[in-house]
């Protein structure tokens, strides 16, 4: 009689498969413990209470803003509920085992289960902490991956091409639709096998931004270039930028017109230049000139497009790209401000666009990510966009999550003081 | 034309063996690279459409052949078969003038200025004289209906050349197959000679416009008249047009026909008097005429002013929507000049339609307007050539 409730719950707990949270394996001490930092727990409880109020409000009539907020909070509320359940179970089991009146057979059963329940609690704690981390505002968007050669001459341009093919292959394997928005090799043509001067790959997949954002930064290569006659190893680099893709209807139309939105660009601040055939123009000349250049004057962001023979098409593509770049710039600026604020509290690693993030060492057939510290050895599989690349990308996402959690804890700590 | 520097040719060669040949017509590396890329894409599309014939070898040979044609001056548009006119891809064929982007910019600007007007009639009639590929009616329709659909647009394109009319009809048919094409209003094409005196008899199978309206049971009054007529004088033809234009585009579309005693400049202006008189006869409320340069623009604007039927006349540059680099916007000879680039067209309007264009409405009554139209008929036939018309 006395033990029935927990036995039942235990069965239920066992039946519920542990939540699969890809890429969220936390190594920091704070988060591996079953206990949640009190500040975070308090925050989760406040949110749950607020959620309760919102739900009541919604029962009395619809309100878009309240509904949206409630939707955002529900993840946290759910995670909190799971955590409560798991910690209660642990508490019950523990007290049962320490209760001298407990039947020995039951005690043995309880200690058997304690291990599984503890794992549940650990998972629940992690879920709760990660649910509190604010989702990156672009995470749900498709993205643009821009690749450009850095230092290292033509070897850098060859490597930039290698990176492009790596991401393309990765997209193919994983069913992400990708298209080349812009591609220029050093010949100004699109033929492969010639060193790359600039490429923009659009990954038209929901949440691609969240998935690829960790790829931004400087990728370094160490190898003997094909052009090297003396067999010396060179170090070169290519830079990768990840921007939110704002093509078509990835963002609510209204956000483009709302001056407070990250996506807003005031047309008055953009200078449009179209390339025209020189001379008299009109009937006198019949050369096709369709190149377009946009300059966002406040930030001096320049985008030029000449891929298409149609000037309106080039203009449209250039606008989309300009919006993406500016949205990303604004975001980066804000992130930098946040980092600057937090640095005093905790040594949050900065991840700007100029930082070296990964090294591809061909001689040792190894790839090391300098943020997550992960090293893999199947370099060929990485370059072919295989599972090994996925693994290393995943390590970066975990690292990002860890940094976010650290920041969150630091922030809560600040707020308390 | 100045010779290309050897260093440029060498640089081009190291990039791609086919590039130096394209530098001839393109003059600079950037343009040549673009053209080579488009030619390559074209060859790839062709190869994809008819697969398994020789593979890459045939593709290389085809590309080399196209580059050779282009190097000889043949316009890229005739080689690829199309040109973009605004957002529309228009078919091009030798024998018909290739649509120009400058023309598209004027047309788009006109449509954008009027399409949101409150006071448009439920049926809006547009006449395009010297229509060539039919690009102007097609772009007008496209740009107009992309903004609103509550108005019935009737557009008529007129040309004297059968080759043009056939291509125009073909372009219309092709557009209508496109999903994004609005099946609204009506576009038609008609053969007529806009230079022929309406009272003259039919000449060598050519009908004057008025007679053609009657024969084809067409409307006789039109709200908007647009024309990009032949406007190049014989001397400018040799001095100002590029080799590719002279060597491959029809002279009929570029240089007005000779007639007895006219001097070079007047010959370039041949079409404008007849066009303005047609505008008056069809009671056009808005007239947009393309011109070669500022001098011609001023001459045409003065001709229009002398008719005394318009309430406003202004000159547009290649990019009329752009604010000029030099502020405040300039005026010359009493006409304001809008936009950036070379002078490209003359816009005239009369009566209450000023409000369509967002201009102040003149205080003229309907009666007065009818009166001035009538009065302006004084010098009616003088502008038409009653004899000696040969092309
Ligand atoms: C400069 S092209 C303009 C074509 C087209 N509207 C465009 O903008 O591309 C002039 C056109 O006028 C036509 N044309 C020449 N003389 C004409 C005449 N007397 N009456 C009517 N059309 C004429 C030519 O066949 C040619 O298609």
From TrEMBL, chain A:
InterPro entries per the UniProt record, alphabetical: PCRF, Pep_chain_release_fac_I, Pep_chain_release_fac_I_sf, Prokaryotic/Mito_RF
GO CC, any one term: mitochondrion
Domain Prokaryotic-type class I peptide chain release factors: 276-292
Keyword annotations: Methylation, Protein biosynthesis
Pfam families per record: PCRF, RF-1
Tree of life domain: Eukaryota
SMART domains hit by this protein: PCRF
Molecular-function GO terms, alphabetical: translation release factor activity
Protein's GO biological process: mitochondrial translation
Family, per entry: Belongs to the prokaryotic/mitochondrial release factor family.
Protein name as it appears in the record: Release factor
Species per Swiss-Prot/TrEMBL record: Trematosphaeria pertusa
UniProtKB/TrEMBL annotation, chain B:
InterPro entries in UniProt: DNA_methylase_N6_adenine_CS, N5-glutamine_MTase, SAM-dependent_MTases_sf
Keywords: Methyltransferase, Transferase
One GO-annotated biological process of the protein: methylation
Any one cellular-component term (Gene Ontology): mitochondrion
UniProt cross-references to Gene3D superfamilies, sorted A to Z: DNA helicase RuvA subunit, C-terminal domain, Vaccinia Virus protein VP39
Keyword Transferase set for record: yes
PANTHER family per the UniProt record, alphabetical: HEMK METHYLTRANSFERASE, MTRF1L RELEASE FACTOR GLUTAMINE METHYLTRANSFERASE
Name listed for the protein in its UniProt record: S-adenosyl-L-methionine-dependent methyltransferase
One of the record's GO molecular function terms: methyltransferase activity
SUPFAM superfamilies named among the record's database cross-references: S-adenosyl-L-methionine-dependent methyltransferases
Superkingdom of this protein's organism: Eukaryota
Organism: Trematosphaeria pertusa
